Structure formats: structure tokens, C-alpha cells
Amino acid sequence: MEQLWGNQTRVSEFLLAAISPTPQSQAALFVVFLLVYIATLVGNFAIMLTVNADSHLRTPMYFLLGNLSFLDLCYSTVTAPKMLMDFLSERRSISYDACMAQLFFLHFVGAAEMFLLTVMAYDRYVAICKPLHYPSIMNRHLCSSLVVASWMGGLIHSTVQTILTMQLPFCGPNHVDNFFCDVPPVIKLACTDTYVVELLMVSNSGLISTSCFIILLTSYTTILIKMRSPEGRRKALSTCASHLTVVTLFFGPCIFIYARPFSIFSVDKLVSVLYNIITPMLNPLIYTLRNKEVKSAMRRLRTRSITSGGKMIL
């Protein structure tokens, strides 16, 4: 079904690509990605609950970590439920409005996470390089302001991307070469020259992801330079290793997708699965497996839950 768009027609829905071509593999992937999505929800919710419930974790670092877990949970939820439904459907369609909404929230949450990861790098810089001034610099008010600024930055970025996309005429074809609606594969379907729009979008998304990544690398390089002793560098690297891993997993694919002209490569769908589905699941594992304080807090929370449950039974 199509709607009128001036003298042309506007598509009312898009057809999404399948991750796997055969029904048997689609069923197998449904089970795999359902487990991944459940693990993402459970892992990130567990970190949020632990950070809020344990008084030992009421510090700027863990306040930011709790917000990162919330963003990871939202980011995965933008695409995973629709993808899971499409595994069980022969016709993977999405309405025009739903496609634009998915595109908006994907860039909203994704950009907010980029900014938040940059804030977390600044937090580690202050903690390691200015430990005596850390409590006064990274106070609760500043942390809350930086989190709000991250969300606002994501909102502004996403609004620009979505408006530029919605202004394009889509009169067919309507086959999106990915399993969700994103800017590069969607604007390729516009029935007009998109060179200027692509240039603006690459400048927007590519500049944000690349700039944040450079700031992060500069921050960690500065930390290592300031730590003159090998022991100090080892401790600094150990402290920042979890964040560096998360940054690499998130920014690497984003720079690959958005910091180049919008040509569609066959590997794009695999890269999209990595940063949309896999990375939000890995972040809780990375932070809990490498962080003794978080593991100890989770054990204390579990012990309290068991004890409370035992008293209720008695």
C-alpha cells in the first residue's frame, strides 16, 4: 500500500532484510538471539539494581556505570524485539512511521551512550590524575549535569538525523538492506539525489563517533603518560581496562558504519549485529568480571535477598 507524495507515491512500509536465508537457520538464530536479549536485560538490570541498592557503590564511577547499563538496555530494546519477531515471520515488514521511530531512538540512545562513555573517560582521568580533588570535581551535581548533557546531545543528534531522513521522498523500492531501520540503508531508497544529505549525515554521525573516540584515546594516553612508574601505569591500565574494552567494542563498529560514505557492504549486517545486539550484552559481563567491587556488591545483595526470603518463610 502506498500513499501520495506530491506527484509521486510514498511507500507506507519497508521490507527488512533477513540475517539468514533459510527457515531452519532463522529458527536457530531466534533461540540464540532470544537468549542474548534475555542476558542483556538481566545483566544490565542487575548492575542498575546493584548500583542503586549498595551504599558502597554510591560514587561517580558507579553512578555513570548505572546510567550506561540503562542506555545499553534501551539500545538493545530499540532493535532486538522487532528482530526476534521477524525471525518467526515470512514477511519482515515495518511501517514508514515505525521505521522512522526506530531510526530516531537508535540514534538518540546510541549518541547518548557515546557521550556518556566520553564522560566516563573524564571521570577516570580525574580519579587517577587528580585523586585529591576528585570528590570536589566529580560531585553529584556535576555528574548529573553531564548525564543530562549526554541525553540532550543524543536528542539533538537524533532529531537532526531523523528530520533529514524524513524530508526525503521514498517512492520505491522499499527493501532495506539490514534487519532494522538505520540511516545508511534507508536513505539509499530515496528517489532523489542524496549526496548532500549523505554528506551532512556523515559529517554529523561520523564526526561525533570519531571525535569522541579521539577524546577517549587522548584521555587514556594522558593517564598513562602521567603515571611515570611502571607500577602506576599497570594499576591505571587495570583500572581503565574495562572501559577501554567497552569503548573499542562500541566505537569500532560505529566508526566503520557512519564515518564513511553510505555505501552498503555485505559485512554491514554482521557489524550491526555486533554493536546493536552483542555489545549491550557484553558490557555487564566486562564490568562485573573485571570489577571486584561490583562482584562483592552483587554477593552482598544476593545474601540480603536470601536472608530476607528466609525470614519471610519463617
UniProtKB/TrEMBL annotation:
Describe the location of the G-protein coupled receptors family 1 profile domain by residue ranges. 43-287
Q: Name one GO molecular function term.
A: G protein-coupled receptor activity
- Bilayer-crossing residues are 27-49, 61-80, 100-122, 142-160, 206-225, 237-258, 270-289
CDD domains tied to this protein: 7tmA_OR4Q2-like (cd15938)
Q: Name one GO cellular component term.
A: plasma membrane
List the keywords (alphabetical): Cell membrane, G-protein coupled receptor, Membrane, Olfaction, Receptor, Sensory transduction, Transducer, Transmembrane, Transmembrane helix
**Could you tell me which SUPFAM superfamilies the record lists for this protein?**
Family A G protein-coupled receptor-like
What InterPro entries does the annotation carry?
Answer: GPCR_Rhodpsn, GPCR_Rhodpsn_7TM, Olfact_rcpt, Olfactory_Receptors
Can you tell which superkingdom this protein's organism belongs to? Answer: Eukaryota
Location in the cell: Cell membrane; Membrane
Membrane topology is:
Multi-pass membrane protein
Coiled-coil residue windows = none
Matching Pfam families: 7tm_4
Q: Which family does it belong to?
A: Belongs to the G-protein coupled receptor 1 family.
The name of this protein is Olfactory receptor
Annotated source species: Alligator sinensis (Chinese alligator)
